[in-house]
Structures
1.
Amino acid sequence: DIQMTQSPSSLSASVGDRVTITCQASQDIRNNLNWYQEKPGKAPKLLIYDASNLKTGVPSRFSGGGSGTDFSFTISSLQPEDIATYSCQQSDNLPFTFGQGTKLEIK
Amino acid sequence: EVQVVESGGGLVKPGGSLRLSCVTSGSSFTGAWMSWVRQAPGKGLEWVGRILSKAGGETREYAAPVKGRFSISRDDSKATVYLQMNSLETEDTAIYYCATHRTAGTFDPWGQGTLVTVSS
């Protein structure tokens, strides 16, 4: 199975800050990497697919990058509504695997 | 807008069985591939398994921890996918999400989940 190592596991930042989360795959997954936003009691939401493609309707302050084994997810200017857990997921090989998640809090 | 709604969660004893349902609306279900993903308390998301469309032979694939115990099926006439869970273990306690496949390995949209608790 492909292991996805996400860091940090938690992050505290101020409104307006630039926030970056990284995700490392245990083997080359090309650009087959997705990012999701999770909020308690709500359906997880796809934000970024194929490493860098912003899903339609998702605010442009969210972005993703990388390929191969190293990926990043950035919020350019943190907003209060961005408080959530963010998870990466590789879609290159079965079984699909996720990072352990990054819990984002407002400082 | 596509909507996904899970149901059927609850409390079950170890060794017991439970069947979850997932109804979709707002788009054609017939061609959709569907997955189940779970999240145990304090843990990350874990893919459970998927079922392809009828055109894909309704092929089913499962994660190792559930293979042989869990089974996914679908009823296109009801736009519903099911997760039959047998021989449940305490480690199966989790919120179970149903998700439509945007592509072969990308999940969008998801449902809000249904909680399964396995405890004596």
2.
Amino acid sequence: DVKVTQSSRYLVKRTGEKVFLECVQDMDHENMFWYRQDPGLGLRLIYFSYDVKMKEKGDIPEGYSVSREKKERFSLILESASTNQTSMYLCASSLQGANGYTFGSGTRLTVV
Amino acid sequence: AQTVTQSQPEMSVQEAETVTLSCTYDTSESDYYLFWYKQPPSRQMILVIRQEAYKQQNATENRFSVNFQKAAKSFSLKISDSQLGDAAMYFCAYCTTNAGKSTFGDGTTLTVKP
């Protein structure tokens, strides 16, 4: 069974901390994505990557960065966590756009 | 920029009945893909159904079917014989053919009443 695995289901961090959210897929997918999900706002794209070491900004990249050193792993980094980054973070991967996404289970991040 | 609009924040349906969730989108592209995803409470989001814009025939997956109206830029999801397990938030999404990223609507929360 193909999988996208997010390392943490729940995370609580303090304001100003550097936070790493990890995502690993075992499907040899080229494309990987990070979204945040907030009530009433749907899913908003933070960053995405089409290949190793490549990254593209999404709609809301401010305050975030990403790393893709290996094809299967796509990390989201909050350089200095703030309370407005409290959210559900969803990682997804796809072989190509036409196939749709396979999602991870999500990480619910609370910044206090 | 492409936008996806789901005008129904919440919907409810009686078990065994049929419900339709609405979705409209805005694009200047002619080739694209449309999706419906299901996110059950506290569970992983999964792909329910997909539609290629170049196909006139509406996609069907068991009890799930779509009504794709390309000219109207409308893409509704019909769930027949609703089951308790269909209760979830449903997201409509749009993806162009030359980019892998998708744009999502705000979601519709579906309640199924026994």
3.
Amino acid sequence: QSVLTQPPSASGTPGQRVTISCSGSNSNIGSDYVYWYQQVPGTAPKVLIYRDYKRPSGVPDRFSGSKSGTSGSLAISGLRSEDEADYYCASWDSLSGLVFGGGTKLTVL
Amino acid sequence: EELVESGGGLVKAGGSLRLSCAASGFTFSNAWMTWVRQAPGKGLEWVARIRPNIPDGGITEYAVPVKGRFFISRDDSRKTLYLQMNSLKSDDSAFYYCAALSWGYLGQGTLVTVSS
């Protein structure tokens, strides 16, 4: 059971906009930043979003992050086949340290 | 900007291993540094975090499963993060990644395999 709650799956067609949610609580997202990772099976995770909405260099601006209260969201616009991967959210929790969501498997139809 | 981990390998249960993470391209001494791990087929799991020496005195925090066995440290002069892992168990087998989350950096990982 993950501390942060994500939908197990999401899907979209090429060119579409997809949003993945991440629900937490006052002890994590409500009081600290949200981070988003992308992981293609068999490869190392990659940071997509840090500090709620910032993108590391090299991450396309098709990826955007936002936060409201105790929930964060990752939006992917102009969906591409190479975006098919697992997406995880994370946040620092005042009691448990860095906590993660269970992951969302994105399928590009 | 990058983080490069090293030091992983095969070790017997009860043994020790020290991981290193070489940082470049950002002000390492100001960064809160973190180790996370991922066992095969599992999700990411936080391991430990260390604050900057100045002004936070290098305070360390540990996840419950590793507390008392793992020790995180830093050498700002070498821009290197360490993870000393003692009394290793089979459950500790995983890829270990270092991260500077406030900068959005995550290394490529080093594999630790603990044989029983």
